[in-house]
Structure formats: C-alpha cells, structure tokens
Design goal:
Strands 10-13-16-19-24-27-29-32-35-37-38 form an eleven-stranded mixed sheet. Strands 8-11-14-17-20-25-28-30-33-36 form a ten-stranded parallel sheet, with no helix packed on it. The protein is α/β, with parallel strands linked by helices. Helix content is 17%, strand content 28%. It has two domains: 3-92, MurE/MurF, N-terminal domain (Udp-n-acetylmuramoylalanyl-d-glutamate--2,6- Diaminopimelate Ligase, Chain: A, domain 1, 3-Layer(aba) Sandwich), CATH 3.40.1390; 104-307, UDP N-Acetylglucosamine Acyltransferase, domain 1. The longest helix is centred in the last third of the chain and has 28 residues, at 308-335. The mean pLDDT is 94.
C-alpha cells in the first residue's frame, strides 16, 4: 500500500488533522505500528497507548483530542480501519485466477464470466456459479445449486444440492451448507430417519465463517437473511429463518424452525430451543439459553434467558447469600431457635 493520509481520508470520509501528505505503506495496532503505518483508536481508554505509539497516522473519533499528531477524524474509526485493511487484503491475498485443469465441472453446470476454480474443486450437474466468483481448491458444489456473483468460497467448503446463494457472499474454510437436518422419528424401538428434502437459501452479503453448519430444511427452506454474519462453529438447524443483518457469534446453536428477526445479535455460546421466535433487534448475551420467545429490542441473558437487568439483580443477590445465611444463623441463635 502506497497512499498519503489525504488519500486515505478521502476513501474513508474523514477529516485530516496534521500532515496530509505523509506517506502510508501499512497498517498495524498502536503498540506495533511504525512511522509508515496507520493505526486506529476506537476507545478513549487507550489514549495512553497512542501517546507511546510510533504510528505515522491514526484514525480517531471526534471526541478524541489528539494533539501534535497526524490523524484522520471520522465518526466511526473502526469503519475507517476496516476500509484500510480491505485495501491491504486485496493487495496481499492471491486468489485463484482461472479454472484449474484439476477442477471437475459437469457439462451441464453453468460457469459465469471471470470465475476462478481451484484444483480439485467440484461443480456438479445443473449447478450455476455467478460472474467473478472465486472458488478455492477442494470445494464441493452440489447439483442444481445456484451461487451468485462476486462470492468468495475458501478451501474445503461443502455446498450441497439445491442451495441458493446470493451475491457477494463469503464462506470461510470448512463451512458446510445444506447437510441433512437432524430429523428422526421413533418407530418400533428404532430412530427412523426423516428424509430432509428441502434446501437452503442465503441472501446477498452474507458471511459464514469456519466450520459453521447450516442444515437443509426437512421441507421448504432454511433461510439466512441478507447481510447476516455468522461466526465460527455455529450450528443452524433445519427450517431456521434469520432476518437481515443479524450477528451470530461463535459456538451458538439454533434448533429447528426458529424464526429470528432483523438485526438480532446472538452472542457466543447461545443456545436457542426449537420453534421459538426472536424478534427484531433483540440481543441474547453470551451463554444465554433461550427457552421462550424474545420480544423486539429485548436484551436477555442467563439460562433460562431473562431480561438483562433482572439477571444481574439475581446474580448480585446470589453473592449475598453467604452473608444472609450467617445473619439468619446469628438471629436464630439470639432468639434461641434450633438449627
């Protein structure tokens, strides 16, 4: 990267303070940055790091008073940081650039313009891969699956049959889309498999991170709304539907037929029981166990999950129990009441 501070400010929509002509070649954290790097300060409590930093420029918010230092001031410095790292990423990542002769593509598959397929990638009958999509080695794309344009699919991703994927989606290594849902019925003392004949539908601008699994529907569709981001090691069961722009953090499990609204956040290790509804903009705290519907904009935590304020009060009360028990014991002794 060879940009001036002025050029980075134009890209991020920020205002330059100090030397706009300063050359920037890289990006790094405040403590590791050199004079050729840009860094960012997302929280004023780290101002002490900035004072010792050698960074050539720093992205800061308007409420950070940065003196005697070149800075780019913008409302959301973390967004600016993401834009800078996006530039670096495009320069440093070497994606597959063509269709490798060791890839296996069905004669009935449709491959768009400027598609890249890595070695041992497999595209089965009737599948469609949209323009400018990059498919890394050892990816499997099943029969009649449709993948949109400008997608990025990393190694060892499995996308089974009859999956529909929008544009600009990213799949990190090991993601599995469209595996069978966990459907069994007890018959004559044995668990009899219920065939999972539905599919998966994923909207535009979705990112699915490493080793996450999204099961196909028993019938109909499992749906992931556009703009949703799903972290590593997440399990989305059959017939789940998420709205748009949700955030689902690592090791979360969502049971079958759950309906999730728009802008919902499920923090790490959340568990959601089947057939529930989590409405728009709700937040479930880390390790929360959701056993009832969650209302719009509610913030819940605990197992079973309760409103956050109630859960914090309960935790505070629990910590007082030893003292309360000692007071009861002392009071009973004073009153001459047996234990």
């Amino acid at each position: 990267m060879h940009l001036t501070v002025d050029e980075i400010a134009r890209m991020t929509g920020g205002i330059v303070q100090g030397d706009g002509a300063r050359a920037i070649e890289g990006a790094s954290g405040l403590q590791e940055a050199t004079e050729k790097d840009i860094s960012f300060l997302g929280n004023k409590k780290y101002l002490s790091f900035l004072e010792k930093s050698r960074a050539g420029a720093v992205l800061v918010s308007p409420d950070c008073d940065v003196k005697n230092r070149t800075a780019i001031v913008l409302k959301n410095p973390q967004y600016g940081w993401a834009k800078v790292l996006e530039i670096l990423s495009k320069e440093r990542l070497q994606h597959p650039a063509d269709i490798h002769p060791a890839s296996v593509v069905s004669k009935t598959a449709k491959i768009g313009k400027n598609v890249s397929l890595g070695a041992y990638a497999v595209v089965e009958d009737g599948a469609c891969v949209g323009d400018n999509t990059i498919v890394y080695p050892h990816v499997f794309i099943g029969a009649n699956t449709q993948i949109g344009s400008d997608c990025l699919i990393y190694p060892h991703v499995t996308i089974r049959e009859r999956v529909v994927i929008g544009d600009r989606c990213v799949f990190q290594p090991g993601a599995v889309i469209g595996a069978d849902g966990f459907g069994f019925t007890l018959y004559q003392g044995k668990h009899y498999k219920v065939p999972q004949v539905g599919g998966v539908e994923i909207g535009d601008d979705v990112e699915i991170q490493a080793n996450t699994t999204i099961d196909r529907a028993a019938a109909g569709m499992t749906r992931i709304g556009k703009g949703t981001k799903i972290d590593n090691l997440v399990q989305i069961a059959h017939n789940v539907e998420t709205g748009e722009n949700c955030l689902i953090a690592a090791m979360t499990g969502v049971a079958g037929s759950v309906k999730i609204g728009n802008y919902v956040t499920l923090a790490a290790q959340v568990g959601v029981a089947g057939h529930l509804k989590i409405e728009d903009s709700a937040v479930v705290g880390a390790q929360g166990g959701v056993t009832n519907d969650v209302e719009s904009k509610a913030v819940v935590w605990g197992t079973p999950a309760h409103p956050l304020k109630d859960e914090l009060k309960a935790i505070a009360s629990m910590r007082k129990l030893p003292r309360i028990l000692e007071e009861i014991k002392s009071l009973k002794k004073t009153l001459g009441i047996g234990s």
